[in-house]
Request: fold
Amino acid sequence: MSTDAAAADAVRTADSPAKRPHKSDRAVAENRLGMKLVAPAVILMLLVTAWPMLQALYLSLFRYRLTQPDDREAVGLQNYLTVLGDSLFWKDLWNTVLIMIVTVAVELVIGFAFAMVMHRIVFGRGVMRTSILIPYGIITVVSAFAWQFAFSLNNGFVNAWFSWLPWIDSDTNWFGDHWHSMFAIMASEIWKTTPFMSLLLLAGLAQVSEDMIEAAKVDGATWWQRLWKVILPNMRSAIMVAVLFRALDAFRIFDNIYVMTRGAQDTESMSFLTYRQVIEQFQLGMGSALSVLLFLMVLILATLIVKLFRVNLAQARGEG
Reply:
């Protein structure tokens, strides 16, 4: 009888659905409060952005040139097929992805180093934090013009200061080929936005318990072990936010390319390609299709980043 009862219990257990993790009353209350606080901003953003987004989606279904407003022809998805079948689109997409990956990776490393310094320093903390954040306070266009001058062949100081490096000469033309131009663009982007990354990571460092670090020291953990086993795992949510914000911003890079190269030497990005179609060539239909594709790629990128980090927000709040 006991064997039959055990078998019956096993069958009932196998047939019953998996239990969902129980949310605490605190988590439910915080979710409701968060929805109430975010709702006005979301509604306002939808009211402001819904019409332009729908208009762009509508125009993307037409062959529409601004210089010929009466000559509008519905072409369905033909604009999308034309864009996806053009090698220029894929080349610009590769440039955009490359800039995003390199800049975000470098900014993450340098920004974390700056965050550690700002977090640990005792004397002159205010001066240090202000100095690090100065580049982020400069307008992007102004920063791009400054870096264009720095990399200039005739008047720039980069060649003069760094000519001792094996790959830099006094006559290196930074805007004369693709890879030198891409390096200049990415250097200007890294210099401008690393402070933003360090600021977000500094907020994450402040959430790491000093007791856990001290306990790791007592257990004999080295600095690298404390970094990889204690500090970084407890900063996962902050790192995700920093990477998400910067990746989405870098994916839409436009100002630096517009000022420094104007898309020359195959340095166009997705945003610059859209600009050329709409502003320079007056192709509203094709430009709208590019805008819609850019929007969809940003959504996919954000989803991938969130899925990649797999942040447990309840655990980050200390509930699990």
